[in-house]
Amino acid sequence: MGAYILRRLLLVIPTLLGIMIINFTLVQFVPGGPVEQVIARVQGEGDVFSGFAGGNEDVGEETFGSDSEYLGARGLPKEFIEELEREFGFDKPPLERFLNMMWNYMRLDFGESYFRKISVIDLVLEKMPVSITLGLWSTLLAYLVSIPLGIRKAVKDGTPFDTWTSGAIIVGYAIPGFLFAIMLVVLFAGGSYWQIFPLRGLTSDNFEDLTAMGKVLDYLWHITLPIVASTIAAFATLTLLTKNSFLDEIKKHYVMTARAKGLSERKVLYGHVFRNAMLIVIAGFPAVFIGVFFGGSVLIETIFSLDGLGRLGFEAAVARDYPVIFGTLFVFGLIGLVVGILSDLMYVLVDPRIDFEKRAG
């Protein structure tokens, strides 16, 4: 197993390098870079993309050259543009910029945000609590509900219970998370009906003055609606995955043998079937957690006014804040690859019969 883990760890390097190369290359062809963002703000246009509506043929070659790389820079001195390029590092060739960036990342130097004047690491740490809350509690809730429900559906396969719960699950899966979040706000956060839950933040303004138990209750009170909204899609998928996995195992010969020996249905189900059926469910844990933690919370954070990594990534992409974009991409890509290795270790922990080294050989 040690050799397998070592091979997987070594594969992390070229995989992560490939991710960074592809994204860095794509960014070079995307209009509206940081320099154009600054120019748009200087000229009071507010949004850089308004500069792409149409060119101005009166702009002379003596100011910006015939190709005029920055369409929004009309009327600004060429020296000002060159100074912006030097400040952002765009006076160097793309290859040199990429190599410098990767060398800094290897030394855990992720630079400073172009527009926030704060280091990328400090910015990520500042937003991390919100994303940890959404990712951890959403994944935990999904597993706590989906696994018992999926097992129950497998045991009651074909019964009215299985039918109506499947209908409810399909409806839940069909509703987008952000739409479900809006429904929760309308119903329970003072939208049109009941003012039961708060709409903003993770804690109340008087959080520091509360007792220990009061802080816990206040925290749970604030996260209830965001967690429920972000769990709905994972809940549906995980429940059906658990049910189908158990159905496949229940039909196997070892289950019939266990029943023939006189073991109770509960003993057969949880003593024999559970371990084998849960393999595929456990393997999906990293994907569920990473999906909620990194990518699935942008709209949820916006609706509930939570300032987490989802909004950070979206705002950095819109503002073309490259240090934030590439720094978070590198860190989260590395975490995702390592979590993939941990999922393999979880396979072995649940079922010691699995040997990845023999399979690789």
From TrEMBL:
<feature type="transmembrane region" description="Helical">
    <location>
        <begin position="277"/>
        <end position="304"/>
    </location>
</feature>
<keyword id="KW-0812">Transmembrane</keyword>
<keyword id="KW-1133">Transmembrane helix</keyword>
<dbReference type="InterPro" id="IPR035906">
    <property type="entry name" value="MetI-like_sf"/>
</dbReference>
<feature type="transmembrane region" description="Helical">
    <location>
        <begin position="163"/>
        <end position="189"/>
    </location>
</feature>
<feature type="transmembrane region" description="Helical">
    <location>
        <begin position="219"/>
        <end position="242"/>
    </location>
</feature>
<feature type="domain" description="ABC transmembrane type-1">
    <location>
        <begin position="128"/>
        <end position="347"/>
    </location>
</feature>
<protein>
    <submittedName>
        <fullName>Microcin C transport system permease protein</fullName>
    </submittedName>
</protein>
<dbReference type="InterPro" id="IPR000515">
    <property type="entry name" value="MetI-like"/>
</dbReference>
<keyword id="KW-0813">Transport</keyword>
<feature type="transmembrane region" description="Helical">
    <location>
        <begin position="132"/>
        <end position="151"/>
    </location>
</feature>
<dbReference type="GO" id="GO:0055085">
    <property type="term" value="P:transmembrane transport"/>
</dbReference>
<keyword id="KW-0997">Cell inner membrane</keyword>
<keyword id="KW-0472">Membrane</keyword>
<dbReference type="GO" id="GO:0005886">
    <property type="term" value="C:plasma membrane"/>
</dbReference>
<dbReference type="Pfam" id="PF00528">
    <property type="entry name" value="BPD_transp_1"/>
</dbReference>
<dbReference type="GO" id="GO:0042884">
    <property type="term" value="P:microcin transport"/>
</dbReference>
<feature type="transmembrane region" description="Helical">
    <location>
        <begin position="9"/>
        <end position="30"/>
    </location>
</feature>
<comment type="similarity">
    <text>Belongs to the binding-protein-dependent transport system permease family.</text>
</comment>
<keyword id="KW-1003">Cell membrane</keyword>
<feature type="transmembrane region" description="Helical">
    <location>
        <begin position="324"/>
        <end position="350"/>
    </location>
</feature>
